[in-house]
Amino acid sequence: MSEQTKEHANANQHTILFVCFGNVHRSVLAEEVANIILRQNQLDGSYRAISRGVQGSLGFEKPKHSSLMEYDTEWELTKRALAVLHVDTRFFLDRKSTPIDIKTIQQATEVVAMDQKIYEILTEHFPDQANKLVLFSAWVDTSNPDDIMDCCDEEKHLAVNTSIVKGIQSNLITKLKIIE
Question: Which end of the chain has fewer CB atoms at under 10 Å, N or C?
Fold first, then answer.
């Protein structure tokens, strides 16, 4: 599904919004994995996942690059990690970083912050939307309470990507039942 199509949810559709710092890697991956599961379970008419970043809004500068593919080292590490997880990386091809805005957060059914810092930023800037906010590690009921932090080496890339992919694969359908 194209980004443009996803941006226009129907009135009955629940929106899960994943937010990380730059909307270049973590939230984009979470969005894609969630949408794959929604399509596989024929739930994409009732639910959609989108993603945003705080960079480029809320007083933060835009990311240096608008796509993960423009960060050579990170892109190579992510491709390797996702290959281990059997996740096709083609969805990154046409993705560009998109900053969070009030309209998007208001329209979301749930807002999933990828780490504690993002959770705190969103709570500070959108206090009237705090009831929608949840930390990713809590949202997927992981036994690992650690945040899904930006990665900087191969081992961390594999761990972060695994946490995102496996967490959503294992918990999304259960979470949807709670949302309704």
Answer: C
33: CB partners within 8 A, 6+ apart: 87, 164, 165, 168, 169
* Domain, as residue range, for 147: 3-171
* Residue 95 contacts residue 28 (beta carbons within 8 Å): yes
User: What's the maximum distance between 2 C-alpha atoms anywhere in the chain?
Assistant: 42
Q: Is residue 101 part of a domain?
A: yes
pLDDT tens by residue, 54-100: 999 999 999 999 999 999 999 999 999 899 999 999 999 989 999 99
Residue 89 within any structural domain of the chain: yes
Is residue 48 situated within a structural domain?
Answer: yes
Three-state SS letters, 39-100: HHCCCCCCEEEEEEECCCCCCCCCCCCCCHHHCHHHHHHHHHHHHHCCCCCHHHCCCCCCEC
Q: What is the CATH number of the domain that holds 91?
A: 3.40.50.2300
The pairs formed by 40-43 with CB atoms below 8 angstroms and a separation of 24 or more are: 41/173, 43/176
